[in-house]
Amino acid sequence: MNGAFLSQLLIDGTTTGLVIALVALGYTMVYGIVELINFAHGDIVMLGAMLFLTLIGLLGLDHAGQSWLARHPWVALAVLVPACATFGAAVAWTVDRVAYRPLRHLPKLTVLVTALGCSFVISNLGLLWGGLPLAVFGGGRAPSSPKSVPDLLPTLNLLGADSVVFLGTKEALVLGLCLPLMAALTWFVRCTRLGIAMRACAQNPVAARLMGVNVDALISLTFVIGGALAGVAAVAYATYHGTVQFQLGYNLGVMAFTAAVLGGIGNLPGAVLGGLVIGLVQAATTLWLGSDWTNVVVFLVLILTLVFRPNGLLGTQMREKV
Amino acid sequence: MSAASLNVREVSVVFGGLTAVDRVSFDVRAGSIVAMIGPNGAGKTTLFNAITGVHAPSAGSVHLDGQPMAAVWDRLAWSNLSVTAAAAGAGAAVVAGFLPAWTAATAHAGFAAVSQAFIHSPAVPWAALAGLGLGAAAGVFAWRQSRLTPDRVARAGVSRTFQNLRLFRDLSVFDNVRLGAHRHLGARSLAAALRLPAHRRDEHLARQRAHAALRLVGLDHVAHRAAGHLSYGHQRRLEIARALALGPRLLLLDEPAAGMNPAEAEALIPLIRTIRDHGITVLLIEHHMRLVMGVAERVIVLASGSVLADGTPAEVRADPRVIEAYLGRDEQAAPGAQAASNPTAASRTGADHG
Amino acid sequence: MTRFLRRWSWFLVFALAALVPLIDLVLPARLRITGMLVPVVTYALVALGLNIVVGFTGLLHLGSAAFMAVGAYAFAILTAPCFPIQCGFWPGLALATLAGALAGWALALPTMRLRGDYLTIVTLGCGEIVRELLKNLEPLTKGTQGINPLPPPALPWVTFTAAQPIPFYLLFLALLAGAVVVCRNLRHSATGRAWTAVREDELAAKSVGVRTDAAKRSAFTWGAGLCALGGALAASYSTGVEPSIYDFQMSVIILCIVVIGGMGSIAGVLIGAVVMMGFNQVGVPLLTGLMGGGAEAHPLLDANNWKFLIFGLALILAMRLRPEGLLPAREVRAELHHDPDESDQEAVRAGDLR
Asked: Considering B206, B229, B247, which residue would you say is the last residue of a domain?
C-alpha cells in the first residue's frame, strides 16, 4: 500500500461521503426538530435525480455539442442545481404539510409509519416516472431498471494527465457543491435569528412557542431546507455515480440515516462526520473485500460504534428528567 | 426481610459544571423514619436519584446495611465480563472456521475431513483472538456503564416513589402493583408460554403480594380501574403500594403528599408508621411540614447541595440557619409554579411550628 | 364470564377459519381461495412475532424480514436435498425456530441499552447485514440462486403436494393457533407485564425491579423465534428460498400488518394480515385486470408497478383516520385518545410544564 493508493482512497471516500453527508443533514435536521425518521427523505433525493435526468433529456444535454447549453455544461449545471433544489424543497414541504403536520400530537410510531408510507408513494412515483417515454429513460419500457446519466462534464484529471491519483471534474463538482452548502448551513444555524430559533425549537418546542416562535413555520422551513439539500445531493449523486434508479432513495437514504445516527442524530457536524466515515469505510471495503460487503461492514461499524457510544460519535447523553 | 440501614458517604453529583449534590453524608438507622427537607433545587431528588442509580454519583459511595452497593455489582460484572469475552471469542472462531468446514461437508467428505478443514482454517485463531479482545472490551465498557442501574438497586431491596408520578397509567391498579412484585418472580418466559406449574406459582405469589400491598394503602376497592383514572391522592398511594409490593428493606418516598389536600396528607402519617412497623426503613422528601414533624424521627435539611442541619424535628426547627435558608429563599421564590410543593408554603408551616 | 367467552371466541374463529376450504369444493378451480390463504397464515405468524417486540414491548423493529430469513435459510440448509444434513421437516422446523430465537437473542445482546431510534436503525442494519450475508456466503446459501427444492411437511396419512394447498393451510392454521395461545400466555404473565412496563415507562419499570434489559432480550428472542417459524413455513410452502425476498419492503409490510391491525392486539394482528395479504394476493391481480395490463401491455398498466403507491397511500390514510389500527389493544387506544386538557392539568400539577 503506497501513498497514491491511500490518497485515491481518501478522495473516493470523501466524495461518496460528502454526498451521503448532504442527505444525512436533511435527516438530522428534521429529526432534531420533530424527532421523526423522515423515511421519505431518501426518496426525495431520488425524485430530484429523476428530474435532473428528465431536464437533461428535455434540454438536449445528452447530445454533446448540439446546443449552446450542451457546449457550456457549467452553465447548464448552474441552472439545473437550483431547479432540483427548488423541486426537492417543494416536495419536502408538501410531504410535511399533507402527511406529517396533521399528526404532530400523535405518538412517534404513527408518524413514522406515515413516513414509511410516504417513502413508498414517492419511490413508486419514481418508478412510474421512469416509465415515461423519454429517450433518457430508454423509452420507458423498463421503468425499474437503472438509467444511465450522460456525462455533462468532460472527463479529465484535475491533478494533471499523468498523475497516478485521479481527481476528476465530477469529484470537483461534488466538493464544490457540498462544502459551501455545509458552510452556509452552519452559518445559518449558528448566526441567524431563524437558525437560533430553529435550535431553540429543537431543544424545547413548548418554551420556543411561549417565546413567540412560530413553531409550525419553523418546522416547514426545516423540511424546505432539508429538501433543498436533497435536491442538490440528487445532482451530486447522479453526476458522480452516473446512474439513477427508483430504489436509489432507499439505498442512499439508509446510508445517510446511518451516517446521521453514527454521528449522533440531531447533530449537524455529526451528520457530516458520519457521512465521511461511511464514505471512507465504503471505499476501503470496496477496495479490500469487494463491493458485495460494503453494507455488511458499514452496519457492523455502526453497531460497534453504538455499543461503545450509544449516542453516536458526537451525540450527547440525553438525561431523563425524573 | 428486615429493615436495612442506609449510609451515604461523601456523595457528590455533578452535571456538567453544576454541582447539584456536594459531598453529602448522612446515616439512616435501620427501622427509622427520616425526613429530608430543603428549599427547591437543594438537590434532594438528585440525591434520591444517586442512591437509586438513576444518575451515577460522581464521587462517594452508598452503603446498604453496611455493605457498599457497588461491590455486589462488581462481582456480578466480572462473571458477565468473562462470559462475554469467551462467548465472543468462541463465536468468532466458529464463524471463521465455518465456511471451510461446510464446504468440506457439502463435498460429502467424512467427519474427520470436516473437522480437519475447520482446524486448519487459517482464520480461526485470529478470529478467536479478535473476538476475545472485542468481547472483553465490550464487557468492560458495558460494566462501566451499567453497574449503577435502578433495577439492580431495586432488586437489592431499595424501592422508591417519584415526585412527578410515574405510574403505568394505562394499566390497571392491580397490574401496576403486580409489577412491583416482579423481583420475587422467576419471570421464566418458557414456563409462562406453556403454562407450566412454575408459572402458576409465580402468578399466585404476585397476586398475593399485590393484594397485600393494596390493602395496606387502602386501595383494594379500586384494584381493577386504570391507574390513570384514579384521583391524584389515590395515585400517590398507588405509587407507594407499587413500591411496597417489591418487598423493600428501604423505602424512599419523594414528596408523597405533593398535590394532596391537608386531610389526605395527614392520613399519610399512620400509613408511613405502619410501613415502618412492617420492617421497612423509610426516608422521605417532603415539604408538608405537618407531615414531616408528625412522622419523622429525624430531619435532614439540605440546602444548595449540602447538609445544613441534621437532628430531631425539634432541633431542626430551632436551628437559625434552617430558618434563614427558607426565609432567604422566600424573597426570591417565584410564587405559583408549584402550588403544593412551594417553599413559601412549606416555610410558613414550619414557622407555625417554630 | 367474559374471559370464558373470549376463550371460546378464539376457538370459534379458528374453527371457522378451518372450514374455509370447504368453499373451495363448490367453486371452480379458477376462483379457489385456499392457496391465497396460506401466505396470510404464514405472514400472520411472522407478524405475531413482530407484535411481541413492537406492540407488547414498544421497541420499533425494522428488521423482522432478517429473522424470517434466518428461519427460512436454517430450514433450507437443514432439510434441502442438496445439503448433507437433510434432517426432515419437523426437526428442521424446530431447529429453524430455535435458530431464529438465537439470532434474536444475539442481536439483542449488544444493543439493549440503545434508546428509541438508535435501536431502530440497528435493527434495520441487521436486516441489511443478513440479506447481504445470504447473498455473499455462497457455499452455505448458494448466493442469489437460492436453495431449492425444500421438503413439504410430513404427517402420517396426509400427503402434501404443491397442487393441493388445503393440507398446508390446515396444518399452518393449527400452528398459528398454537402461536396465538403462546402469545396470550406470554402476555398474561410476569414476562408480558415486564414488556408492558418497558413500553409504558422504562425508568419506572427499572425502579420497581424489572430487569428491562432482560425483558427486551426475551421480547426479541420470542419475536425472532416466531418470525423464523413463519419464515420456515413460508419457505416450505414455496419450496425454495432466495435472498431477494427478505428485503426492507418485507420488513415494512410486516410492520404494517401489526400497525394497521392494531399494535399489541393479537386479534388485530390477524386481521391486519388478512387485510394486507388480501390486498397483495387478490387486489393487485384484480387491479391489473381492470387496468388492461398484461404481459404485452405497457409496464405502466401493470398494477404491480402501482402496488406500493396504493399501499403507501393506504398507510398514510390509515394513520390519519385510525392511528390505533383496526382492532387496537385497550391500552394503546387509551394512549392515543387521552383528553389533552386532562394531560395538561397533569403536567401543571406535577410542576412541570413540558
From this structure: B247
